[in-house]
Specification:
Elements lengths: L16 H12 L1 H4 L9 H4 L18 H5 L2 H35 L9 H32 L24 H18 L4 H11 L4 H9 L12 H10 L11
Helix pairs in contact: 1-6, 5-6, 5-8, 8-9
Length: about 250
């Protein structure tokens, strides 16, 4: 019986003129592209107190009778909390998932043989990610200042993350565990984090708040927040496992 060849990710080839040209161009143009190289805006001056902090269309309970019956202040507080929670979610993912991944690449943990150009590009991307985290932190900070509400990040639960492993090195049981975890992660990213919403309505001590969140969580008519997993689908097809996963790709 011929053993099945395990698929793997392609290695970076510094001798490939196309690959090298792309990386080199990105590295050279970083100073013009990077937001961190541009002047800092005055966020307090830009903040419009008359605008909603979060669109109703993304609230899982926007059409719920309890939400519609709330005072304007309570609805505004929920929208502000939604914005704070969104920013925290992005910051957590960048700090606990993206940045450690970049660190591994920067130290050539994948043994791809980094040249100077590629190493510079990786470190530029790391700076971009750190500054992106700062942008979300500043967005939450200016919201707290201008609204006059405390809304601390540490009052919210930690984001759920998926630990990524090199698929090639996993045994059958571990691969099954990885694929199931990947499905759970995509499901989490495409839906609202109702544990966070339960925490928020408890903080605000909203009458009937938990019942409203429970109703929204079990409302099957709502569409997913994120519907495009084309990149992950392509990777899973490359690994030959897309058909084994209990996930609706379309």
């Amino acid at each position: 019986m011929t053993p099945q060849k395990t698929p793997s990710l392609p290695e970076y080839d510094p001798a490939d003129p196309v690959e090298s040209a792309v990386v080199s161009r990105l590295s050279r143009n970083w100073g013009q592209r990077a937001t961190v190289k541009k002047p800092e805006p005055d966020l307090d001056a830009l903040f419009d107190v008359d605008k909603q902090d979060y669109p109703n269309e993304l609230l899982p309970f926007a059409d719920h009778d309890r939400f519609l019956a709330m005072s304007d202040e309570h609805r505004n507080q929920l929208r502000a909390w939604a914005w704070i929670a969104f920013n925290k979610n992005v910051m957590d993912i960048e700090q606990y998932v993206v940045n450690p991944g970049f660190d591994l690449v920067a130290h050539d943990a994948l043994d791809t043989g980094l040249g100077d150009t590629f190493a510079v590009a990786v470190h530029q991307a790391m700076v971009d990610e750190q500054y992106h985290t700062l942008m979300h932190l500043n967005a939450s900070a200016v919201t707290r200042r201008r609204r006059g509400w405390t809304m601390p990040n540490n009052a919210l639960p930690d984001v759920l993350t998926l630990r990524r492993q090199v698929y090639d090195t996993l045994g059958p049981a571990d691969r099954r565990h990885f694929l199931d975890g990947l499905v759970d992660a995509m499901t989490a990213f495409s839906s609202n984090d109702y544990s966070t919403w339960h925490t928020i309505v408890d903080i605000l001590d909203l009458d009937g708040g938990r019942a409203m969140i429970d109703d929204a969580e079990h409302d099957t008519s709502r569409s997913a927040l994120i519907q495009d997993f084309g990149g992950i689908h392509k990777l899973c097809k490359h690994l030959g496992v897309a058909g084994e996963m209990s996930f609706e790709w379309a």
